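## Example record

The block below lists the input lines for one assembly entry, exactly as stored, with component labels intact.
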Amino acid sequence: MISRRELLKDASFLLAAAGAAQPVLSWAATQYDVPTIPGKDGMILRSFRFLDVEMPMEFLNSWITPVPHFFVRNHMHEPSTVDAAEWRLSVTGEVEKPFTLSLADLGKVESHTVINTLECAGNGRAFQHPSVPGIQWQRGAVGTARFSGPRLRDLLQRAGVKTAGKHVMFRGLDEVPGKVPPFIRSIPIQKAMDTDTLVATQMNGAPLEKHHGFPARALVPGWIGAASCKWLTEIKILDKEFDGNFMKPGYRFPNQPVAPGGSVNPDDAHPVTGLNVKSVIASPADDSKAKRGVVPIRGAAWAGEADIAKVEVSTDAGATWSPARLAADHAKYAWRLWSYSWEAAKSGEYTILSRAADTQGRSQPETAAWNPSGYLYNAIDQVKIHVEA
Amino acid sequence: MSKPSALTILGLVTTCAPLFWAQSPQAPDLPPGEMQAKARTACLECHEARIILQQRLNKAAWTREVDKMIKWGALVGPKDRDPLIDYFSVNFPPEKAPEPAVRVKKKQ
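Predicted structure tokens for the full assembly:
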């Protein structure tokens, strides 16, 4: 048993130790706070190391997403330093004339601009049932930006792709921990040669920020974000699809429908490429309150390589649907903003839904196709609100 | 100088543990438990705890995740594998409420 004297002696020792450690303790207390990330104020933090931040829906209020509100998805550590003067981009593999460019060289190649909605393949993963592993994105791992830079095809044509060249591999400068496979993926030569596929060096009229791939990234429009490799440093033309982890089993979608919770043989799955048709409700927020009267409902809809044909809204949990108004701004690969003015005549609890259809005849399903990694979630979106008298 | 008592040592450990276990600034920690220390050394070397805290998986899915991470270099010996899977399965099961979202703060 500890005597009172011993207790006091121990207490004084502890107090002295705590006093000596006070500066460090204060440091520890503050360091457990949510961190600041310059340029990303107010974003939802999914992970700090590696950095994964999501756009809250209240920021979805413009056709072009400002860079500070653009989501960040990193699979690895960002390169600790990128020296623009030292950076090089090589084009090798199944080509007649491999070459290497500096950033200044790349700047001399004719630039092209594509307005693209970039969405992480796992956006909406948090809504999958049963739940699946991965970053638990809700609605905001998506954004639309003006990307500018040389066409990839111009670089490939300069290198002279051999007839054996079937896939184009991208390697970035991500810093890989442990024995984690490097984040290397490839796209088919047809998509690489598309006039809208870029080696982007600019985003919204300014050089790419580091979180978004400075000094250059692939921009594969209409496809999942993972196709658009950041901190690009190597382009290699292959005679077949790259066979690393992030092509297989990673980023593959089952060829057949899978029972929720089931498993999938990677040999019976295909690479995830183009985005699904999808709409999200930006406002009102889920679980929010509104006053009786006119309640503005708005959001965005996108469909990867297809165009949005229509967006419909239901304010009675899907019993009836009304067309939303599509905003004038539009471009191939870019989302359409939409709005609907709802006259909320009575107070009470309401479930508001939105669903989009595209020019390929696809429409948002009531339930997204479940898959073990939660890719391409696109179920009809819904928010619940309380209308007050 | 007399040796510190067990209470002193316990107090010091309790008081100062966050200093030693904080695997990176601004990072939350993994929940207490027999495998907490092992999970810290095996997982938080490469990524922070937030990535684990947001998962809600059954035991089969946790088994796949742990085995994948061992293949990718997580230092987990054979005797620690099953207890680690149990630790994650108990602390982060599908029925647990989702991890609350946090926002990046504005720089003061």
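The radius of gyration of chain B is 16 Å. Residues 26-108 of chain B form one domain.
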